[in-house]
Design brief:
Blueprint: H1 2-22, E1 31-36, E2 39-44, E3 52-60, E4 78-82, E5 89-92, E6 102-111, E7 115-117, E8 121-124, E9 127-135, E10 142-146, E11 151-156, E12 161-166, E13 171-177, E14 183-189, E15 192-199, E16 203-208, E17 214-219, E18 225-231, E19 234-241, E20 244-251, E21 256-265, E22 269-277, E23 282-293, E24 298-311, E25 314-320, H2 336-340, E26 342-343, E27 349-351, E28 357-360, E29 365-368, E30 377-380, E31 387-392, E32 403-408, E33 413-419, E34 431-439, E35 442-453, E36 456-467
Antiparallel strand pairs: 1-2, 2-5, 3-4, 3-6, 6-7, 6-8, 9-36, 10-11, 11-12, 12-13, 14-15, 15-16, 16-17, 18-19, 19-20, 20-21, 22-23, 23-24, 24-25, 26-27, 27-28, 28-29, 30-31, 31-32, 32-33, 34-35, 35-36
């Protein structure tokens, strides 16, 4: 009996020694975390233990357990590895959060014969992340926002699917399969939240904005659709065919065309678009033409924006929007005005050029929104709210590409300069699209990251919120 007892004690001692060797060793290896404009900054105490190999940095949307009994932390949570023991800081600008905005961090010191985990740090950020998988290589490049209903739409062109996110509820509502692909236009139409898709310059389809259930489609012959707008259950479709630009008006109650109006005959190459002033019963038709002069060797460019009043749901009288700062004819290289002529969604303002001049149609006055931070501004008009977001041009003129200006409407007073919460770059293999917009008094910054592995795409949408004042 005593012999058996000694054997059992000996075995327990061996197990204890083995477990002690494999378990992490506690030490004064302390981690701290802080939030700087939604970039998490990690700091830890210098490494004093011998046998240093590396430090692993882990991030998760839920608490991270310590590595135990040869079970390391899930490798998918690893966001960085540091091989220099003198480094004691790590900046995470590609934060991924849980639905409640929580994010957890832990670092693990790898020594020659053991690992030493730090304490766990958790932060609560004003935002959220949602993840979803799709087969194959995801080259999705279209995210459409619908601030009136706090919704975002993501097209996965590779998997032929469409996802809708409620960013006020911080969750993925639904993903549906789509047999067609096109540009999305979410619209409040006579109190109904609807989603329109234009595909192949031939068909405009309507869906319920929340359920994504199909409602109807309208086909236009010859694939001539250039643009369209919807208001008060009527659709205005801009078509260009045989050098003739027309506005076709459809009654959406019956999906029947009720009017066709020829608005321009082109004699040379052209580009054109249609806009609608949703609060002012106006349609805006803008076009850009160019003609080559063989004698001078120059191109002559013409930019114009024409306003049509909507009377009894039909486009009526028109007038050319005129101001010395827009609609000028120009020679070679002077075509950039066209790309900057942009009416606001409410029909009250028009961007004139790439120098920051905005025309107020109420009193025909000019407001300039260029600044020392943003010399060649890109204007984002609000769909809801009374603030104007001004971004730097991606190609030139921005001193700080991450800094944006916010102006109040209608007085165009500079309210604040605000940084985007989006990362400047994306670290790691994959791709990312990102943008910012205003929702009433909040800046909404979103980015969509795609990670490719084993013929599987993991997509992560991250959204941050920031109050303007």
């Amino acid at each position: 009996m005593a012999k058996h007892y000694l054997v059992i004690v000996f075995l327990l001692l061996l197990i204890g020694i083995s477990c002690k060797k494999e378990m992490p060793v506690s030490s004064n290896f302390e981690l701290s975390a802080s939030n700087e404009n939604n970039t998490v900054v990690l700091n830890w105490t210098p490494v004093s233990l011998s046998g240093f190999k590396s430090i692993n940095v882990y991030r998760s949307v839920s608490p991270i357990p310590d590595p135990l009994f040869n079970r390391p932390i899930d490798a998918t949570l690893l966001v960085g590895t540091i091989s220099d023991k003198t480094i004691t800081t790590f900046r995470d600008s590609n934060v991924v959060m849980g639905s409640g905005g929580m994010v957890y961090y832990k670092i693990v010191l790898n020594l020659e014969n053991r690992v030493v985990p730090s304490n766990q740090e958790e932060l609560s950020l004003d935002g959220f992340s949602v993840s979803y998988n799709s087969p194959g290589f995801n080259n999705s490049g279209q995210i459409t926002t619908f601030p009136e209903k706090n919704l975002m739409y993501i097209i996965n062109s590779n998997g032929s699917s469409l996802s809708v996110i409620d960013y006020s509820q911080k969750k993925l509502i639904k993903t549906v399969s789509f047999s067609q692909y096109g540009n999305l236009f979410p619209i409040m139409n006579s109190g109904k939240a609807e989603l329109f898709m234009m595909s192949n310059y031939l068909t405009i389809s309507c869906y319920d904005a929340l359920t994504l259930a199909a409602k109807y489609s309208i086909s236009v012959p010859s694939g001539s659709i250039r643009d369209f707008r919807v208001q008060d259950n009527y659709m205005y479709v801009l078509t260009v065919y045989n050098n003739s630009a027309k506005i076709r008006t459809y009654d959406l109650s019956s999906q029947m065309m009720v009017n066709e109006k020829t608005i321009y005959i082109f004699s040379n190459s052209t580009t054109c678009n249609l806009y609608i002033g949703t609060q002012s019963n106006k349609l805006f038709f803008k076009y850009y033409t160019y003609l080559y002069n063989s004698q001078t060797g120059n191109y002559t460019y013409k930019n114009a924006c024409v306003k049509y009043n909507i009377v009894n749901h039909l486009p009526g009288d028109s007038v050319v929007i005129s101001h010395p700062l827009m609609n000028k004819d120009s020679l070679s290289g002077g075509s950039s005005n066209y790309y900057y002529i942009q009416p606001s969604p409410d029909g009250n303002y028009i961007t004139c050029n790439n120098y920051g001049d905005i025309l107020s149609l109420a009193d025909n006055s000019i407001h300039n929104i260029s600044s020392g931070n943003i010399l060649n501004p890109m204007v984002v008009y609000p769909n809801v709210g009374s603030y104007l977001l001004v971004k730097p041009n991606n190609s030139s003129g921005g001193i700080n590409f991450n800094l944006m200006d916010v102006y109040s409407l209608p007085n165009f007073n500079l309210v604040t300069s605000i940084k985007s919460s989006n990362p400047a770059i994306f670290q790691g293999s994959g791709s990312m699209i990102k943008d910012d917009f205003l929702d009433n008094d909040s800046l909404v910054s979103y980015n969509l990251k795609h990670m490719f592995a084993n013929n599987q795409t993991t997509s992560v949408l991250t959204v941050f919120f920031k109050k303007i004042n």
